[in-house]
Amino acid sequence: MSPPGAVRQLPAWIRLGEGAGGHALYGVLAAVHSAALVGIDAYSVTVEVDAAPGLPQFAIVGLPAGAVKESRERVGAALANTGFRLPPRRITVNLAPADTRKEGTAFDLPIALGILVATGQLPATSLDGVMALGELGLDGALRAVRGALPVARLAKSTGRRALIVPPANVAEAGLVGDVALAAPETLHALVEELRAGVLREPPARPRLVIPDDVDDLSDVAGQESAKRALEIAAAGGHNVLLTGPPGAGKTMLARRLPGILPALTEGEALEVTAVHSVAGMLASGCALVRRGPFRAPHHTISDAGLIGGGNPPRPGEVSLAHHGVLFLDEVLEFRRHVLEALRQPLEDGRVIIARAGHSVAFPARVLLVGAMNPCPCGYAGDASRACVCAIGDITRYRGRLSGPLIDRVDLRVEVRAVAVGSLACARSAQRSREVRQRVDAARLVQRTRFARLSGVECNARAPGRWLDAHGGLAEDGHRLLVRAAERGALTARGYHRTVRVARTIADLDEEPGIHAPHIAEALRFRLGGTAEHTVAAPARALT
Length: 543
Known about the structure:
The structure is a single chain. The protein is of the alpha/beta class. The protein is 34% helix and 17% strand. The protein has 21 helices and 20 strands. Helix 7 (224-236) runs parallel beside helix 16 (432-449). The N and C termini lie far apart (79 Å).
C-alpha cells in the first residue's frame, strides 16, 4: 500500500508507442491531493488524471462548476507556454469525491501536475505527501485563490509534508504552523523544484499592521450618554440602537466603536481571517486580522447579501462582521424581511444556509449597531426644528422595526443634536485608548468568569440560568428588576438581557456584585433614556 499522500500510479505500464520527438508514451493513472471549501472549512479532494489512448479529448468529471470546467483551456495553454507537452490523448480528470460540487479555480495547478505525471513528464514520487492548489495564468504564473487558510489547516490535520500555494496566499497560509509551504512563481519553476526533489520555502512575509485608533472618540463633541453606551457595548458585547435627528452624530459615534473594542484573541483572529479568506476579501500579502471588522452595508442590500447565500453559499455581511461590528445606518430603511432574517443569527451566533442535499454554517457573532431617525422627517422631539410628520406616519415608520428584533437590542440611546456654537471649543477628554483600557480590563474579568462555559466569551452570551445562579445579583438589584417587570417594562428575554448589561456595568466599575445602581443604569438604556451616568431618576421611577 502506498504511503498517505502519495501519488498513486498503476503497477503495470501500458506502452502506447512513440510520441512527438521520439518520447515513449505510457498510460499512467495519477492522483494529486488538493482541497475544496464548504463554509469556512476545507475538505480533501483527490484529483485523478488518466491519460489513455484514443481520440484526443480533455474531460473533467466529479460535479465541476463552470470555473472548474474552464480549467481545460487554462491548463492546456499554461502547459504549452511553459515548454511542456500535452500529448494527443484521451485525458480524463476526476475530482473525488465525485458527489460534491467543486467550485473555483484552485484545481488548475493539481490538474496540471496530474497531467505531467500521467504523461511521464514528472516523476510520480515527487508529489508524495504534497497538497497543491492554485490558479494558472495562460503564461503558467500561479495566481491567488480563495480559502488558503482553511486548506492549510486541513493540510496540517491530515499530516501533509508540504502545501503548494500561489505566492499571494503565503501570508495567510503561513498562519498555520507545522506546515511546510512552497510558493513558486510559475508552473515551470515548480516542476523544476519537484524534479530536483527540493521544494524551496518562500521568503517570510510581514504580517498586516493594523493602524491604531484612526477614528478616535475624542473627535466627538458632547454625547456623553452615547459614549457611555458604546463603552458598555464594547465591554460586554451588547447590541446598540442610536436614535436621533440627522447630523446629530450617530454615524460618527458608530464608526468609533471598533477603536475601543478589545483586540481579537488568537482563535478569534483565525476565525475572522478564515471567513474573509473564503470570501476572497483578504488583500494580497495580508496575514492575520487583528482587529474586529467593521461592516456597514447599504440599506438596499438583499437578505442573501446580509445573511449569506448563493450557490455555492457565500458568507454575508453578518458573517463578514464576525467578532466585530455590523452597523446598519438608517436601519428603518432596510426591508423588513431583511431585518427579520437577523433575529436567529443574533441569538445563535451563526448562520445556517440550507441547500438541497447539504447545509453550510457560517459564524456570525456580531455586535449590532443600528442608527435611525425618530420619524420620517427626522426631527421629532428636536427642540431646534419642528416635526411635520403626522402621528400615524411616525407610528408606521417606527413599526418597521419589529418587537422581537428590538427586544434583542440591549442599549437604546437617544442622540440629541449638539449646538453648532459649541463644536469649535468642545472636545472630549477621553480618548479611545483610555476607554479601551477599561474595556480590556472588563473583558479579562469575563473571560475568567466564563472559562468553563463553552462558546461564552462575554456577558452578552452568558446563559440566563447561569447568571441567576452565579452572576452576583444582589437583593437591592433584584427588587428593582422585579418592579420593572411588574410594571410591564421588561419581557422575560428583557429581564435577562438587563441583568447581562448590569453585569457589564459592574465589571467596568470593578464590582463583584450587581446592585441597584447597575440595574438602574441598565434599565435606563434599555428603556431608551438619555440621562447621564446617574441612577437617581430611573430608581425613583420604579419605587
